[in-house]
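Morning, I've got a small favour to ask if you have a moment. The fold is given in discrete form, as structure tokens running alongside the sequence. I'd be grateful if you could look everything over and explain what you see. No rush at all, and the record is pasted right below.
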Amino acid sequence: MGVVNVTPDSFSGDGVADAGSAAAHALAQRDAGAELLDFGAESTRPGHEPIDEDTELGRLLPALERFRGVDAASIVSIDTYKPAVFRRAHAAGGDILNSIWGIDDGLAEVAATARAPVIIMHNKRRAEYENVVDEVLAYLAGSAERMVRRGIAAENVILDPGIGFGKTAEHNLTLLASLDRLVALGFPTLLGTSRKSTIGKLTGKPPTERVFGTAATVALAAAAGIDIVRVHDVPPARDVVAVADAIVRGWRPQNWERT
């Protein structure tokens, strides 16, 4: 999954505020090998200022419509936690709801009405846990079961542990060491570690120089059975996934010669 930040204040430094640049970036991510594109128009960096629906839609819809004018086939997720935003974005060509604040009743209703796949991410206002892995998994399992009861097929309910959201660096590492337990819940899974602050704390590198740290987490995710990795730097991530999948999942490229 390639990131498309339609916002001027992204933590990763790759945000673009105008529709043309955002659409061009989405096409570049696609051409670099992204199989899904995640459009988001509200920054979620630490200390960000929330924006209202009109502001978010004013950034998101022109970029999405510009992209859909060129590419009607690629799978697009909409990174929002506002029901009205997803409703409008879905009508404009968004396929999947990707909510950083889980699925409340309003979002659940909109997604169920649209019959849209959902990405449910764990988040928390305060990074306080008795056992971070148990709490995150219980929340995700309960949310997934609620969406299935609303009529969304289990294969269209995707679970994200929310690395970097409402968690300390130590919490993040504990979760990353327990990805097999997330996979064992039996739903599709997504991991978003790209350029995150925990990688910066481990490597001492700024966001734009965290590609190798991100690559380590992508390889470990593939080994654990994670289905989707959300990344800013698509080409190196594609290489990591290709090699990791060849080792742990038996994937081979076309015209592979077994010599």
